[in-house]
């Protein structure tokens, strides 16, 4: 009887130890799988509506001028806490992936335009193109086309052919963003 109890106890201890060892591995695998959001299949991707908006330095920037690159198009505002929270990830994404054909483009919803956005950009070291909806004749149309819910942050990731591959309202974890842009950069 003692041998059976000892054997059963050993099995329980063995399962506990194995579970403690394997659990972190399984958790990491599940997290890695979760960090790669589903992209729209290439054949089903809609062409991103083209627009021209002013950048902070007053230049006209046309979305279609980025064709051939993966574009992370982020609609945000300085008064939006979740938007501000995502900015460091976008700065890092621009730093790490610009040479690989990926461009981050911010589109500000701030009504005060440059007056509100420029100090924020300088203070936070934003290193990517920043466009302004305020004062743009196309601003209302762009907002309706890309952010029909009116909720920000909203992000669209556009493939090299100028088609929308991924869209989300809310923050996307940095690991997910990296996985998406890497996958899109590898597409022909």
Report the total helices. 5
The dominant shape is: globular
Secondary-structure element series: HEEEHEHEHEEH
Share of helix among residues? 40-55%
Strand content: 15-25%
Structural class: alpha/beta
Strand order of the largest sheet: 2-1-5-4-3-6-7
Low-confidence stretches: 8-34
Average pLDDT number: 85
The third-level CATH topology of the largest domain is: Glutaredoxin
Largest sheet properties: 7 strands, mixed
Q: Which CATH first-tier class of the largest domain would you pick? A: Alpha Beta
What's the domain count? 2
Tell me what you see in this structure.
By secondary structure, the protein is α/β, with parallel strands linked by helices. It has two domains: 1-34; 42-186, Glutaredoxin, CATH 3.40.30. Helix content is 44%, strand content 19%. The chain has five helices and seven strands. It has a seven-stranded mixed β-sheet, covered by helices on one side. The longest helix is centred in the first third of the chain and has 33 residues, at 2-34. The protein is globular. The chain starts with a helix and ends with a helix.
Give a summary of the structure in a few sentences.
The chain is built from five helices and seven strands.
Q: Topology, pairings included?
A:
Layout: H1 2-34, E1 52-55, E2 60-62, E3 70-76, H2 81-97, E4 102-108, H3 114-124, E5 129-132, H4 139-146, E6 154-158, E7 164-169, H5 174-186
Parallel strand pairs: 3-4, 4-5
Antiparallel strand pairs: 1-2, 1-5, 3-6, 6-7
Helix pairs in contact: 2-5
């Amino acid at each position: 009887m003692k041998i059976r109890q000892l054997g059963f106890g050993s099995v329980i201890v063995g399962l506990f130890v194995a579970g403690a060892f394997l659990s972190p591995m399984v958790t990491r695998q599940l997290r890695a799988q979760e960090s790669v959001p589903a992209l729209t299949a290439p054949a089903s991707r809609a062409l991103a509506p083209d627009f021209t908006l002013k950048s902070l330095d007053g230049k006209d920037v046309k979305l279609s001028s980025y064709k051939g690159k993966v574009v992370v198009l982020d609609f945000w505002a300085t008064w939006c806490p979740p938007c501000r929270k995502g900015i460091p990830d976008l700065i890092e994404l621009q730093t790490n992936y610009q040479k690989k054909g990926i461009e981050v483009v911010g589109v500000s919803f701030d009504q005060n335009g440059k007056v509100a956005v420029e100090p924020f950009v300088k203070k936070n070291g934003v290193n990517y193109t920043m466009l302004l909806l305020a004062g743009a004749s196309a601003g209302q149309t762009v907002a309706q086309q890309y952010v029909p819910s009116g909720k920000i942050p909203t992000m669209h990731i556009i493939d090299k052919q100028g088609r929308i591959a991924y869209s989300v309202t809310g923050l996307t974890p940095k690991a997910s963003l990296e996985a998406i842009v890497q996958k899109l950069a590898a597409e022909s």
